Amino acid sequence: MRGDDGLLTGVIDQLPLGVWIARAPGGELLLANRTFREIMGMEARGDVAVGGYGEPYGICGLDGKPYPEARMPFVQALQRREIVTVDDIVIHRHDGRRVNIRATARPLLDGDQVTHVVIAFADITTEVVARGRQRVLEDRARHDERLRAIGTLAAGVAHDFNNILAQIRILASMLRLRAPEGDRVEDLVRIEQATDSAAALTRSLLAFGRHPAGRVARVDLDELVAGVVDLVRRTFDRHIVIEHAPRPGVVVAGDRNQLEQVILNLAVNARDAMVDGGRLRFAVGVVDDAAPAGRTPGRYATVEVSDTGPGVAPELRPRIFEPYFTTKAGHEARGTGLGLATAYGVVEAHGGAIEVGDGEPVGARFTIYLPAAEPRAEPRPPPAALRRGAGRVLVVEDEEVLRRALGRVLAQLGYEVVEAGDGAAGVEAFRAHRGQLAAVLLDHVMPVMSGRDAYRVMRALDPSVPVIVVSGRLDEPVEAELRELGIHAVRGKPFEIEALSETLRAAVGPPPGATTDVAPSPA
Length: 523
Known about the structure:
Blueprint: H1 5-14, E1 18-23, E2 29-32, H2 34-40, H3 54-57, E3 59-61, H4 73-80, E4 84-92, E5 98-110, E6 113-123, H5 125-178, H6 183-209, E7 217-220, H7 221-235, E8 240-245, E9 251-254, H8 256-273, E10 278-290, E11 298-307, H9 339-349, E12 353-358, E13 364-373, E14 385-387, E15 391-396, H10 400-412, E16 415-420, H11 423-432, E17 437-443, H12 451-461, E18 467-471, H13 476-485, E19 489-492, H14 497-508, E20 517-520
Parallel strand pairs: 8-10, 15-16, 15-17, 17-18, 18-19
Antiparallel strand pairs: 1-2, 1-6, 3-4, 4-5, 5-6, 7-9, 9-13, 10-11, 11-13, 12-13, 14-20
Helix pairs in contact: 5-6, 5-10, 6-7, 7-8, 8-9, 11-12
């Protein structure tokens, strides 16, 4: 067999696995094949032994730190006297490449004595990269699933919350309209304003959780930022001081939901950076003849979000907008590392740019640049007024307090009211009063039968009756779908009774021989 040593060595040299054989117990090199040398990016070292493998070959762990000598495959196989496999080794080659390997060490025994250790090395870099990508995809899928779950929960809470707000607002409005002038009217107006503010907060939370619709429109940037400021003031810890430097009249063209999401992402990042408290500042402005990040020179609207946290180190700024790149570690590592990448993509899609710099006097400052649109004077709407009407109106609403309040309001406006407590009861009432109804006021989300399904049945029975849908869970896709079905009008909860009266009057027309208005609403 010894005459075949040269042939055996040649065969080993052609194996697709790296082979390394060393004497025991010292670890002196006996043989290393060509694949081993290719994996290591260097010739095998005959001058290294147990306790000194790591540095010459650049052997590190997955964390980039030197691999512990006590965990080397040779040492483990020698001590345990059994086959050992490890796949957490990364070779930091001298040419700069990183190679992930799986090493399988087998001790060769002569009786009870380990004489040699044979180690097979496999380059598993491609496998590790594929596993990493798979983990990213799985993490992203889990993140999306969490967002969908949060969005579903938020929508359900918003529906119930908006139903309550609608009850409070409509009852306050009724009291206001019947109250004499004075402090009582002022207090009731404040209640109405408080419900409007709460409804705006609900809309902001829904916009934060749902996927944007991608609709481009004129956006008042300062109004949008003011909404975000209001949201973070209500939800962030009190040890963070929120400041807002407004600039009215700054208008851009874009998707309101997406832009709101960008500013919220920056605010959340700033909050996470200030674990011990600090100052979070929002500022809106306009710059002329600017060319941010190589963009076409022109007039740009700006939003600055700055904090007094530790800031972003200059060497990290080129990577700060990369997906999954984060400077957070350990218990601070919240989210998926997609917030700034998403913000960057949205701003780029809007023809703008986003930059990061130093805060004043400390911290980080993110500046968003968006092409400014020319402001235009919006016509001032006339004072809201209650519009009288006539005819029989079917009110289908599962919230009893709100249903009764709506019935009382419509009766005061001159309508005869029929009530139903769910979609199925609404269909039966529609069928019972067929040919006698002037309009239907229909809740969207109800038990037994949804408003959408009830409307389909009603339309099949009599398509001439105008149906107005009201909902506490309303967004642009849902509203668009309802309008495509032929709904006459859609109103979100809570709503002003003046606006509701206007919508109903537009549907049924003025009452015969009556004045068109009851009275202007008190301001």
